[in-house]
Design goal:
The chain is α/β, with parallel strands linked by helices. It has helices at 15-26, 46-50, 55-66, 83-92, 119-130, 160-175; strands at residues 2-7, 32-36, 69-73, 105-111, 135-136, 142-144. Strand 3 (69-73), helix 4 (83-92) and strand 4 (105-111) form a beta-alpha-beta unit. The longest helix has 16 residues, at 160-175. It starts with a strand and ends in a 17-residue tail after the last helix. The structure holds ligand FNR.
């Protein structure tokens, strides 16, 4: 099973990228998680899209298509989803209802230095993935507040309870039948 990891933060020392590294370690046997870097994606622009997806967009959409499931780790910016991550979802959600996201199983998680642990960002992320018909797992919710308490100086997730929750989430993800094979682009008429 191929899992595609997407972090809503680009920085090297990102807690959310560290969460993805932990997820790669905790994935069930037979599942391999690789991270896709969102750096270089232009802002969504219908004129660019009409002229043919730019290369970073094609790379993102191909990676999502190839993956059996997605694992998204998001920070919270100003009480919501980071703009860069929302932009990536906007690109990947095209063509509407027949995009690479349609029917794709998704596990979400997030770490922030605030006390809310990305609850508000994750709520917005669920909503953004809903219209493209991605299938976002409900539980367990992985909320990491005050993230500096959960990671060591090497960026290793050391909180055992969170490690257990991530293992549980990924085991659930692996059990989701790959409905994307059924709900594939050919079976759903694209709309503008
Ligand atoms: C933040 N941060 C933040 N934290 C939070 O809990 N709620 C919030 O609304 C915000 N808002 C916010 C806005 C912006 C623009 C930045 C840059 C940061 C703090 C954030 O949780 C912290 O920087 C995390 O470390 C970001 O995640 P990464 O980069 O470590 O993955």
């Amino acid at each position: 099973m191929q899992l595609l990891g997407i972090a809503g933060s680009l920085r090297k020392g990102s807690y959310n990228r560290a969460l993805l590294r932990a997820a790669a370690e905790l994935a069930p046997p037979g599942a391999v998680l690789e991270e896709h870097d969102l750096r270089g994606l232009p802002i969504y622009d219908g004129d660019l899209e009409a002229a043919g997806d730019p290369e970073p967009v094609t790379a993102l959409k191909d990676a999502i298509r190839r993956a059996d499931a997605l694992v998204i780790a998001t920070p919270e910016y100003n009480r919501g989803i980071p703009g860069g991550l929302k932009n990536a979802i906007d690109w990947a959600s095209r063509p509407a209802l027949a995009s690479p996201l349609a029917g794709k199983p998704v596990a979400i998680m997030g770490a922030s230095t605030g006390r809310g642990g990305t609850a508000r960002a994750q709520q917005q992320l669920r909503e953004a993935l809903g219209f493209p018909r991605a299938m976002v797992l409900e539980e367990p919710e992985i909320l990491v507040p005050e993230a500096y308490l959960y990671f060591d100086e090497d960026g290793e997730l050391v909180d055992q309870e969170t490690r257990g929750q991530i293992a549980e989430l990924l085991a659930s993800l692996a059990r989701v039948p790959v409905l994307a094979a059924v709900v594939d682009a050919g079976n759903i008429a694209p709309v503008d």
